[in-house]
Design goal:
By secondary structure, the chain is an alpha/beta fold. It is built from seven helices and eleven strands.
């Protein structure tokens, strides 16, 4: 027989929150949660004590990190959770997993305890300091294992002379990374002249990327953009980019500081454009080839 008045609304757990009751979850590295109060969503990168309380740091998809008090007030897959400190067992398991799958910033398998090899005769040359710093950040571990030193060209206007001075040969290969190597550019003409040095050509590899500056090889999403903005003609490209970012751009020190901030957004090879990745990997393969 049908109950015309329906069921007793107070017979169940009527005090239970709409999303359900919170359960405890360890704040393991990589766990993606959302802070209920602010809506900040990110992966757990570390848990630490600060100001007499435990704080969990969440990194969002743009690489920005923010700290929150450890405890209640988080959502995991839409359900409320109370974050608790990682246990010793989970920290040990995480350590083992990291050791087994450790990778360098370039994606290569890390060699635990490896020491830098004595520098070989081969070298990689890049146009400027910013290029060298980017290569060091992503490929530095690999290059130290191989004993390859990165040197600065300070531009390619005298590239042919640099090659003659270096005297490439067997066991002394020379790889060169050039900015803005596109048809019709000044850089393309200078590279063609350098490649015409037949005496050295078997031991020299010159490659380039299409970007005006190596800054542009960083994926724009790391700076919150869909694409790098166009800088009007007559405006210094770097100064124009810093202006778009709303950062100081008046002095050379401002430019250097701006680059440090951009470089700081690069964590691994995945934060760089493939047009640069492929060329640097090609140079490393060339200068480390045993047959060379």
């Amino acid at each position: 027989m049908t109950d015309r008045y329906g069921s007793d609304v107070l017979s169940g757990d009527w005090r239970a929150p709409r999303r359900g009751r919170a359960r405890e979850v360890e704040a393991e590295h990589g766990l993606v949660v959302e802070d209920v109060e602010t809506g900040w969503c990110g992966a757990v990168v570390r848990v630490e004590k600060a100001g007499g309380m435990q704080v969990v740091h969440l990194e969002d998809r743009r690489g920005r990190s923010k700290g929150f008090p450890l405890g209640p007030g988080f959502l995991l897959d839409g359900a409320p959770v109370v974050l608790t400190p990682p246990t010793a067992a989970s920290r040990q398991a995480l350590g083992r997993a990291r050791a087994e799958a450790a990778r360098t910033a370039s994606g290569s398998r890390a060699v635990a305890g490896a020491r830098a090899r004595v520098a070989s005769g081969s070298r990689i040359f890049v146009e400027g300091r910013h290029d060298a710093e980017l290569v060091e950040k992503v490929w530095g571990d690999d290059l130290r294992i191989e004993g390859i030193v990165v040197e600065l060209l300070e531009g390619v206007d005298d590239l042919a002379a640099v090659i003659r001075d270096f005297q490439p040969g067997p066991g002394r290969r020379m790889g060169v990374l050039v900015d803005h190597l596109v048809p019709g550019s000044k850089e393309t003409r200078l590279v063609e002249e350098a490649r015409a040095l037949r005496r050295f050509s078997p031991h020299v590899l010159i490659v380039g990327h299409p970007y005006i500056d190596v800054w542009q090889s960083v994926r724009p999403a790391r700076l919150g953009w869909e694409r790098w903005p166009a800088v009007p003609r007559g405006t210094s490209w770097k100064h124009g980019i810093l202006t778009e970012l709303g950062w100081a751009h008046t002095t050379q020190a401002d430019v250097a500081h701006g680059w440090k901030r951009i470089l700081g957004t690069v964590r691994t090879y995945a934060d760089l454009e493939p047009e640069l990745l492929g060329r640097v990997e090609e140079l490393i393969d060339f200068v480390t080839d045993p047959a060379g």
